[in-house]
Amino acid sequence: MGSVKGDYQDLVDEISALLGAPATLEDRDFKLIAFGAHDSVSGFDETTLDPVRTRSILTRRSTAEVRAWFEKFGIATAEDPVYIPADPAAGVLRGRLCLPVRHRGTVYGYVWLLAGDGEGPPAPVPGPAMAVCARIGALLADEARARADLGPDLRTLLVSDSAERRADALDSLRTALGDGGTYALLCVAPWADPVPGARTVPGAAALCLLPAPGPAGPRLGALIRLRTPTDLAPAHQAATTLLPVAGPVVGIGNPARTLDDLPGAWREASAAARAALARPHLGPVAEWSAIGPYRLLAALPDSGPGHPVDPAVRPLLEPAHAELARTAEAFLDCAGQAGRTASALNIHRQTLYYRLSRVEQLTGLNLHDGEDRLLLHMSLKAARL
User: Fold this and answer.
1) Is the confidence at residue 334, as pLDDT, over 70?
2) Which of 45, 253, 304, 380 could be disulfide-bonded to 329 (CB atoms 3.0-4.6 Å)?
3) Of 381, 370, 373, whose CA–CA distance to 312 is shortest?
């Protein structure tokens, strides 16, 4: 924590140097974080000390009257610097300039500078100083996320049956994360370890354990910040961190451009994980956009007792006919080309034809009919899930 506080002090000193005046940094609850020192070489005069600034430095916070006066000028939602005139009744004897410290649409604190003797609005703040404020905002946002365990809110948003609880969870996530930014949701399946801390996973804003239907075991959900809506590199970096040498798979949903999109992104991430578990060649990290027909099939209920299977295909899925099912799937994967199928299975063409005739006898389906082939193909793929 000491190094983080040192970062704040360095940044405040940088702003003080850019603006030629001592700056003070407070969080959004008006608690002092860092302050720039007066330059003793320039003829320091203790009579110029501002009582509000002095009290903030000595007690680490401002009075309720001072806070009310400052907030009256809309600093909690301001995007640009705000000039605040003096108010002796509130103990504010000098005007000051407030530089909002923001990150992704949320104000996390304020940088304060005393106005000059003329008590008028100061000159416009140069861009480099506001850029330093943005760097402070990113640091404060990271600290806020580290302090707040957003995992329960993420879990509630994704799986709760209560619309009211989901709405409350969404509000909590918005308060902590802000309205801006793009996120990816990762589904790590299965997950048997304790939920890791958000700071141990690159780019993680929240992690939580989520139930999985059937015998698949719980899954880990990870909310990952993205740099742009089209760059999933941070999601893949997080997936690499979460994957052990051998074990689970990671599904990645399409980027969520707003927090309202997270439930849909979770369904996509879960579908991608299901597909990667069923078809190892898709994993161990699978993006929903790259799993092909499994985007549709994974929307079906998980396999297991009671899993719906077309009556025509059910006999083929019995363990005794596993070789016939494998042959039929390979034949359909090869677009019905006998030569390619026989080569892929390393069998003679006559053996292939015999097996396909047995498939037709068991199912009553005609492998020369397009719709029958579609039904069989999708049923065999769905059975893998």
Assistant:
1) yes
2) 380
3) 373
How far, in Å, CA of 321 to CA of 334, rounded? 20
14: pLDDT strictly greater than 70: yes
Q: Does 42 have pLDDT greater than 60?
A: no
Q: Please check the confidence at residue 135 and state whether its pLDDT lies above 90.
A: yes
Helices (H) and strands (E) in the chain, counts: 13, 10
Sign, Cα dihedral of 55, 58, 64, 70: positive
Q: Would you state the pLDDT for residue 111?
A: 95
324 phi and psi, to 5 degrees?
A: -65, -40
Distance CA 251, CA 184 (A): 10
**What is the C-alpha to C-alpha distance for residues 181 and 141, in angstroms, rounded to an integer?**
13
CA atoms within 13 A on the CB side of 319: 0
pLDDT at 62: 65
Q: Does the bond joining 305 to the residue before it have cis omega, within 30 degrees of 0?
A: no
Q: Helix, strand, or coil here: 327?
A: helix
* Over residues 195-222, mean pLDDT: 83
In angstroms, rounded to a whole number, what is the distance separating the alpha carbons of residues 24 and 205?
28
CA atoms within a 13 Å half-sphere pointing along the CA-CB vector of 70? 31
Q: Give the pair of three-digit tokens for residue 111.
A: 């940088």
pTM of the model: 0.57
* Whether pLDDT at 132 is above 90: yes
> Could you tell me the sign of the dihedral formed by the alpha carbons of 167, 171, 176, 178, in that order?
positive
Task: Decide if pLDDT at 116 tops 70.
Answer: no
Beta strands in the chain, from DSSP E residues, in sequence order: 23-27, 32-35, 82-84, 96-103, 106-114, 182-189, 204-210, 219-226, 249-252, 285-287
Q: Are 62 and 33 in contact (CB under 8 A)?
A: no
Complete edge-to-edge strand list for the sheet that includes strand 182-189: 204-210, 219-226, 182-189, 249-252, 285-287
